[in-house]
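The instructor's notes for this session suggest beginning with a concrete chain rather than abstract definitions. Hand out the sequence below and ask the class to guess, before any prediction is shown, which regions might be ordered.
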Amino acid sequence: MQDGMPATPGPVADEQLGRVIVAQSVLASVVEMTALKVPGVVRTVPRGRRTVHLTVESNVVRADIGIVVAAGEHVADVSAAVRRQVAAAIERLLGMEAREVNVFVRDVEGGWIPHDDHIQPVREKDQTL
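After discussion, reveal the predicted structure:
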């Protein structure tokens, strides 16, 4: 004990001292920055004026985010990784429940698309003049 303070927490430590309110812009930044760190995500894409759409009720979050996936990446795997990592970030960094994370793949970008030898090229009909 030092300066008359008890060594163990008293009743004040057990009481709620206040609230922490996280702005939606902070939550949106966490969602977007987390998605951009996932391998295979090229960039995020806005829908309307915002890149991330959120619904927050009490401590529960529902998030929608649009992404562009790198060509040659497995779109379903990249999308699933975004969902998992965004949900984990919401829970770990903000202490909120991620009830739903929806990922909308808006496009695929890049110079390399895997070639499948079993797919025949589409040929235009011969035209005689």
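Then share the key points. The helical segments are 11-14, 24-36, 75-94. Residues 75-94 form the longest helix (20 residues).
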